[in-house]
Amino acid sequence: MSTRRRLKPGTLRSRITIVAGLALTAAVTTGIVAVYLLQLDSAQRTIQDDLHEYATQIQQSAAARGAFPSPLPPSNRDPAAAAQVLTADGSVLAATSTLSGQPALYILPAGSSTPVRQKAADLLEDREIAVYGRHVTVGGRPVSIITGSTSQLRRQVKVTFTWLLLIGLPTLLLLACATVWLVVGRALRPVERIRRAVTDITDISAAGLTRRVPETGTDDEIGHLAQTMNAMLARLEDSARRQRRFVADASHELRSPLTAIRSGLEVGLAHPDRAPWPKIAERTVKQATRLEDLINDLLLLAKSDGEKAAARQQRVPLAPLLAGIKATTAAPAITIKLDASPDLAVTGNAADLSRVFRNVIDNAVRYARSGIQIRASGADGMVRVDIADDGPGIPVKQREQVFDRFVRLDASREHLSGSTGLGLAIAKEIVTAHQGSITIGGPEDGGAVVTVMLQGAR
Description:
The chain is an alpha+beta fold. It has helices at 3-6, 12-65, 152-200, 206-209, 221-270, 277-306, 318-327, 350-367, 411-417, 423-433, and strands at 82-86, 92-95, 106-107, 116-117, 130-138, 141-149, 314-317, 335-339, 345-348, 371-379, 382-389, 437-441, 448-455. A five-stranded mixed sheet has the order 8-10-11-13-12. Strands 2-1-6-5 form a four-stranded antiparallel sheet, covered by helices on one side. Strands 3-4 form a two-stranded antiparallel sheet. It is rod-shaped.
């Protein structure tokens, strides 16, 4: 990724940096202003305390002497402070050496504690003066003591915070934005690597889907994102592999009946006068029926792949459903026993559930030697249906495999029986869509028990 693109304002990194910079600027500016006001107020109080102390110092000095000295003594705290003592009519009785010969700069009206500025104060070079005044009586004579200072402390506070705003704040902002830019860039670098890796996976073939995005190895959001992306790619790879296998198996299964039909017809056409046409027609119909069943099963599986949820959720009484399947199952040499309570019911689609149990029962009939036992029971809100046969059983290692598509444990017998190899795969798809489960148990050396668990209905 080029620098120009990385600096683009529309990028996440730029937006985070801008927002963080603005937020930091607002926070720091607010903090500086708040501290400035506090410092200014503190400086003002300090100046007023010094002026108050200076007035007290002058009052105590006059009281000790019985009169005000001329010039007045300097302040013990603020060397820049000056003072004037005024009579009741506003005349200057005494002043510090810095104000010698000056008229009254401030007067203190009777009954007031706030000095009033006079025109003579306008001649002072420093126009920002802090003043304090008090009425006192010395030697039986009422006078006013006015103390003032050029407020150097306040000026220092203002200058300091002015420099902070003009130099300190921009410098801090630049450092903060640079830090945010670097930190966000470092945090988003794994995301960019993930994006590039996903972008490079343009080939959805087996080789392309085996690639994975780099994982950070950290237990944070970026690490979880990488793990999620890899899990998704693994699912896509598995789905693509299953789809390719399904297409290959479907092509093979469809080719077999078509080849049988074509071979029989070609033999008949090669010897039309001697060909057993009734038998050829019978075999052709049988293969066409098998081909039709296979196509129907493939369409059903394709539909179940696209719609993982059960179609209509309704209350389905289980005993009548199983009884109807038993009555219509062609098994003249097999005894089918049914044990199901009349009040048992499940939640789901009646037609789909009928296909599930018919496929499982037909599969049991195909392998049973003499009998099949169907038992249904309910507990804890679930309904369990066990379909057991006394056939050869299924090895433990192959009990999960038989639910895959086009899997036959005895291929020759399946072809003779007309099975498409999709019955149990269809049953598992439907049961999964009904949020249930289907498993195979029973002893490995004889007999198989297919257990279907479904959600019960009230």
